[in-house]
Every structure is written in structure tokens, then in C-alpha cells.
């Protein structure tokens, strides 16, 4: 699940940045040679699209049956070592090393400190306070 506020943007933006074909809301997936066949549910039923690979896919809840970790397996996983790899060790991974980043950080700053709230008696007093603070 994406952290883009569930607005369905992350997959499409990433596909545009990579210049890859995209298949969204995949509820079924199969490979036919160098193509991916994506099945998705639409208002009128089901739609099948064929995409050249590499492609970016976003999935629907019906694509897979989730497996839930049991408590003993979670405890075992905590004890396993975590292997950290450098990007250069992975070799050529398609677009990972192909092009320089098109993003540049211009400025990074903390948000302003929030001030405490104030209680007001009624709506006219609220409007007056908002005008005094320059918000209205």
C-alpha cells in the first residue's frame, strides 16, 4: 500500500519517470515471452492488457492471498542478520544506474513550531481573531 494518501499516484509517477509502460490495479498477471499480460477489473467487467517488459505494475487486493507471519516466525526473523549491500555491488539493474537523478533538493527546512490553540466564545470572536492573525 502506497503512502501517497491512497490517491493512486506513486505507480503512475514512477512509470512516467522511468519511461516504462504501466499496468494498474492488476488482479491477475501472467508472462508470455517478453510481455506481461495484466488482467484488471474495470466497470464493465475485466480488461486484459499486454505490456512490454520492463513494466511497472500496481496491484489490486485480489492479485494474491496474503500470508500472515506467525509469532514464532517473527521472533526467528528478529535474530537473523541483516545483510547490507552497496548499490555498486548489485551490478547493472536496468534504470537504477542508467541515468542521473532528475530530482534536486533545493531547500530542506523544519516546519514552523505550532503555537497552542485558543478557545473562543462564538463565531464572530473566531473571525475577529483570524483577521487579527492575518489568516482571513
TrEMBL record:
One matching Pfam family is ETF
The principal localisation class reads: mitochondrion
Q: What is a biological process (GO) this protein takes part in? A: amino acid catabolic process
The alphabetized UniProt keywords are:
Electron transport, Transport
Q: Identify the Gene3D superfamilies for this entry.
A: HUPs
Q: Which residues form the Electron transfer flavoprotein alpha/beta-subunit N-terminal domain?
A: 8-86
An annotated GO cellular component of this protein is: mitochondrial matrix
Q: Does the keyword Cell inner membrane apply?
A: no
Q: Which domain of life is it from?
A: Eukaryota
Q: Name one GO molecular function term.
A: electron transfer activity
User: According to its UniProt record, where is this protein located?
Assistant: Mitochondrion matrix
Role played:
Heterodimeric electron transfer flavoprotein that accepts electrons from several mitochondrial dehydrogenases, including acyl-CoA dehydrogenases, glutaryl-CoA and sarcosine dehydrogenase. It transfers the electrons to the main mitochondrial respiratory chain via ETF-ubiquinone oxidoreductase. Required for normal mitochondrial fatty acid oxidation and normal amino acid metabolism. ETFB binds an AMP molecule that probably has a purely structural role.
Q: How does it assemble?
A: Heterodimer composed of ETFA and ETFB. Identified in a complex that contains ETFA, ETFB and ETFRF1. Interacts with ACADM.
Q: Give the UniProt family note.
A: Belongs to the ETF beta-subunit/FixA family.
Protein name listed in UniProt? Electron transfer flavoprotein subunit beta
Species assigned in the record? Ceyx cyanopectus (Indigo-banded kingfisher)
Amino acid at each position: 500500500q502506497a503512502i501517497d494518501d491512497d490517491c493512486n499516484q506513486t505507480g503512475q509517477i514512477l512509470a512516467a519517470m522511468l519511461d516504462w509502460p504501466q499496468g494498474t490495479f492488476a488482479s491477475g498477471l501472467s508472462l508470455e515471452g517478453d510481455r506481461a499480460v495484466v488482467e484488471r477489473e474495470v466497470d464493465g467487467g475485466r480488461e486484459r492488457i499486454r505490456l512490454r517488459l520492463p513494466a511497472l505494475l500496481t496491484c489490486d487486493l485480489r492479485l494474491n492471498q496474503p500470508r500472515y507471519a506467525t509469532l514464532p516466525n517473527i521472533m526467528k526473523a528478529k535474530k537473523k542478520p541483516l545483510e547490507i549491500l552497496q548499490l555498486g555491488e548489485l551490478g547493472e539493474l536496468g534504470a537504477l544506474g542508467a541515468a542521473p537523478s532528475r530530482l534536486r533538493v533545493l531547500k530542506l527546512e523544519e516546519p514552523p513550531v505550532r503555537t497552542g490553540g485558543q478557545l473562543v466564545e462564538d463565531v464572530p470572536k473566531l473571525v475577529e481573531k483570524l483577521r487579527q492573525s492575518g489568516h482571513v
